[in-house]
Amino acid sequence: MTIESTYVERNPESARLYARASNVLPSGVTHDSRFMRPFPLYASHAAGAHKWDVDGHELVDYVMGHGALLLGHNYPSVTEAAQAQLVKGTHYGASQEKEIEWAEAVVRIVPSAEVVRFTSSGTEATLMALRLARTYTGKPGVIKFDRHFHGWHDYVVANSKYSAGAPAGVPQATLDSVSVLDLDMDQVRQAVATRGDIGAIIIESAGASSALLPVPRGFLQALSAFCRSEGIVFIMDEVVTGFRWAPGGVQEIEGVTPDLTTLAKILAGGFPGGAVAGRREVMEHLRFPEPGVKAAKVGHPGTFNANPLSAAAGTVCLNEIADGTHQRRATELAAQMRAGMNGVLCELGIPGFIYGEASEFKVLVAGTQVPEAQDYDPRDLPWKLLADGMPGERSRLLQLAMANHGSHLFGAAGMTSSVHTEADIARTVEGWRSSLQDLRAEGQLD
Ligand SMILES: Cc1ncc(COP(=O)(O)O)c(C=O)c1O
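Above: query sequence and pyridoxal-5'-phosphate SMILES. Below: predicted holo structure tokens.
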């Protein structure tokens, strides 16, 4: 049996659902990252750090709601808050106290947040942040960084992981307004001087694709200081890192104060939601001007902004994670995972690295170097190796093999929650060993 034939044989119900889905959903999926050949797994339910697929397998889950679930699935206090809200109404079409509590929690926890505006997703948050920056500075140009992912609206898809090169369907004028650069201050200075129209710089706080390609030491501080000196709005995208790296995100760890921060995922406790938070002076452009005062107002409707369900769950979640205990636990477990997986690579003599920051781990089975230690600061690993990544077929088969052995990865990566256990990690490390052996047996590691 091959890895793929085992996967197909184990998952007949997922295969059946995928065939049905493909009639009504393009490529059978609702998020590009869930697309997988020969077919993705279909989940039936989840609890804590585990989920079950429709063929009855219990999987240790490292997708964790695309990073939204620092507390795992169905965390009791969050679930109770959502249930209590559900019966009181899910949309009042009116302001409500819960959105104030939610905003107060963000202001308390995120160091640079003075005021907050809620959106329905991270994509909407980065869209709003850029529009606020253009309004505040009067300059239309934007700098983003190569492969940094900020959602899927027109201004951020150039050179992101979902659309290398010219992204389909985006007007050239929009693409021309965005410069995509390396994480290199000389490039930034040059682009700002040459273009003369840069109003905003946006960065994924821990690096491209949530720290797949880490940010060099000192770069955030240099970028922040440069933006301040040039009057450019500095936007830290903390959609993944916010509330996960530390309660106050990367900005808390690095001591950097952006003008605007974009948030989503953990923000809403596992429900849809996003936010822009930041400096009052920039955020003021969302305010209605006083009568008789002429001021540029950024319009912002959105049917589900701060909907009661997300606000209720999000507030409880943020209060729960505010003291850093959950982040520390999830981070400790991810470190155990990286060490265990690197240990297996050492033992089997397979070149590659398992690396990552905070509660994440990235799987890179490539290159020529067998790891000698069990954990690495990704900033010390060869940049080119990380940037080239793994051969696509190897990555695909590893994901299938890991599922065959009881763990669901998020692509070639994963995130821990605070409710994973040492036993979960041990089970996954054993599954990792078996997966590598399966890959080797298929001649995929040569
Ligand atoms: C750093 C970053 N920014 C923005 C987004 C977009 O958020 P959403 O999927 O909620 O639109 C994502 C999504 O993964 C992200 O990782």
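The mean pLDDT is 96.
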